[in-house]
Amino acid sequence: MPKQAKEMGALEVKRAAHPGDHENNVWIAAGGVSGLLLQITPGGAKSWILRTVIAGKRRVIGLGPYPGVGLADARNAAREMKTQIMDGRDPVAEREARKAELAAAARRSLTLREAVERFLAIKGKEFSSDKHRAAWGREVDRLVGATLGNLQVDSIDMRDVLAALEPHWHVRTDTAKRVRQRLERVFDWATVAGHRSGENPARWKGALAELLPSPSKVAKSQNWPALAQTDAARWWADLRKREGNASRALEFAALTWARSGDVRGARWDEIDAHRGLWIIPADRMKAGREHRVPLSAPAIAVIEGLTRLADNPLIFPALRGGMLSDAALGAAMRRIHEAKVRRDVKAGIAEDKAGYRDARTGRAAVPHGLRSTARDWAVERGIDHTMAEIALAHVVGSEVERAYRRSDMLDQRRAMMDAWAAFLDGREVAGGNVVDLKTAR
Prior knowledge:
Layout: H1 10-15, E1 26-29, E2 36-40, E3 46-54, E4 57-66, H2 71-86, H3 91-108, H4 112-123, H5 130-148, H6 158-169, H7 173-192, H8 215-220, H9 232-240, H10 245-256, H11 260-264, E5 271-272, E6 277-280, E7 291-294, H12 297-304, H13 326-346, H14 369-380, H15 385-391, H16 399-404, H17 410-424
Antiparallel strand pairs: 1-2, 2-3, 3-4, 5-6, 6-7
Helix pairs in contact: 4-5, 4-7, 5-6, 5-7, 6-7, 10-12, 10-13
């Protein structure tokens, strides 16, 4: 019968030290469990090991460092391992398998935010510019980052995606629709890359389509409140009385039919005043294509009336020199509306009818709604549909049609923009046109 080692106590383990007479580790029998040893390095580090036999082969199994693993825990771990060995199991092989599984899971594990970053890094060449790529990721993070960003992609299910999108679906329909499409692409990539398995939780057809209303149906009731055509001249006169770059940017946006972001990012080197032209480069356009805007005399006058700041390329900078915020243009328009409400109420008009409101919804008009006002104006005057859509920088026609249409109808659009500027200035009578735009084609 093998000799039983004396059981060490907790204080003995604490005081145990390397003798210092050689450079090898020393093993001290801990007792209590056959084969349990306290290992001490020449540097004084201590750990627990178990010497035993598995399937006829002598094995040395590490049980963890001391004092992280105390004497009692080491004995319990050693007993459990010896029980497993007696049952015909190999605890070392099982532990290595668990480690490999955890390592594989760690490699697969990825948060949604990290997945978006990796997707963009890999698919980046498909984007028209670095700016577009960055904006793509920012929009996803802004809308669903707080709810999904830190979740593991392999744990996100359709209920999570639904909960993240639903609060925005009726108020930011277009944005929510884009983000859902982007999430679907990211989850597809994550599945192929081995970071998740199963159905795509952002899939639309046969999935989220059954739980959310169609974006096209929702968007019909979510159009931007537009300025009524009958109010255009009065609103224009009120705007021109206002000071500040936000007011001038709003004025320029109204005259050019441009989006708020395009105007706020407008640069001096994009303007050719001699030719009366504003050329917006492709990397600043939503559609990713260069857009030429013919400038009417009033639009040129807006720019010529501004002071160009040294070392600042922006035409309409904020007070601190950066780009104006979208909220700044909204605030400028809101102040015009509120001033009109006060005047109207004083004149005996009901408050809910006062100010500058959308004729259909009664909501106060906003900057983006100016594009709808201009589009309605063009429709009522029988202006060519394609020309008006090009002026709004919309994608017109099929890919084949666009390939064959080389002209952006610049000269015809110049006449249209002149007529629009005259309309804003109140120089167009109801039912009449300053120029015959249908024959100007």
